[in-house]
Design a protein that fits this description.
It is built from nine helices and eight strands. By secondary structure, it is an alpha/beta fold. It has two domains: 146 residues, 3-Layer(aba) Sandwich (Rossmann fold), CATH 3.40.50.1000; 64 residues, Orthogonal Bundle (DNA polymerase, domain 1), CATH 1.10.150. The protein has a six-stranded parallel beta sheet with strand order 5-4-1-6-7-8, sandwiched between helices. A two-stranded antiparallel ribbon has the order 2-3. α6 links the parallel β4 and β5. The longest helix is centred in the N-terminal third of the chain and has 14 residues.
């Protein structure tokens, strides 16, 4: 009943939008610009921090040539307190323990840089569950490029089928391009409806996830 199961991080395992919002707003305050509400920043999350900063800059009318500088500033603010407001989604820890007991190898594939990703996982006591953590700077490609996800699978024990779990359009596209089954966590940062995202199965609470995965592996049904 084993498998290689890779998870996205932000919006899938942890709700980090409050800390991302704080970092973005500190950068905007430093620039003399009004801060943004959390709901607005949440819409901009996806494709990594540089893309988040780019979307914020466009929204606030900041000059595009400052993007490298403001991306570095935002990352500095974020790294100063990456888990102050970040929380683990309900049921995640128990689900990871159950999957490990089922013999699954577990990994994380995130567009967040690897060092802060590992720091967050360690601070929230999730890191010991994972065989591999591949960040946006670990390889030369980022999601939705399938090479990013495949690098994570390659770093894990080669046992059973490969499955990707995520919450967003980027994650769904990554799984599609990597030709692996996609499990959609519906309570994350997606902008589209559930029906619009290609997925094998969807779940809204991690208490259900190990049983869903066990059923998929048992039946060998990996087609959406």
């Amino acid at each position: 009943m084993s498998a290689r199961v890779v998870f996205d991080l932000d919006g899938t395992l942890v709700d980090s939008v409050a800390d991302l919002t704080a970092a973005v707003n500190q950068m905007l305050t430093d620039e003399g610009v009004d801060p943004l509400p959390l709901a607005t920043v949440k819409r901009f999350v996806g494709n990594g921090l540089p893309k988040l900063v780019e979307r914020v800059m466009v929204h606030r009318g900041l000059p595009s040539q400052k993007h490298p500088e403001l991306s570095r500033a935002t990352l500095t603010h974020y790294n100063a307190a990456p888990t102050q407001r970040t929380t683990v989604y309900p049921g995640v820890t128990k689900a990871l323990s159950r999957l490990g007991n089922m013999g699954c190898a577990l990994g994380v594939c995130t567009n967040k840089p690897e060092a802060p990703a590992r720091h967050i996982l360690e601070a929230l006591e999730l890191l010991p569950h994972f065989d591999s953590v591949v960040g946006g700077d670990t390889v030369n490609k980022c999601k939705p490029d399938p090479e990013h996800l495949n690098a994570c699978f390659k770093a894990m024990p080669n046992i059973g089928p490969s499955i990707f779990v995520g919450d967003s359009e980027v994650d769904a596209e990554t799984a599609k391009r990597a030709d692996v089954p996609f499990l959609l966590f519906t309570e994350g940062y997606r902008k589209s409806s559930i029906a619009e995202l290609p997925h094998l199965l969807a779940f809204d609470h991690y208490a259900d996830m190990p049983d869903l995965l066990s059923q998929i592996i048992k039946e060998g049904n990996f087609n959406p």
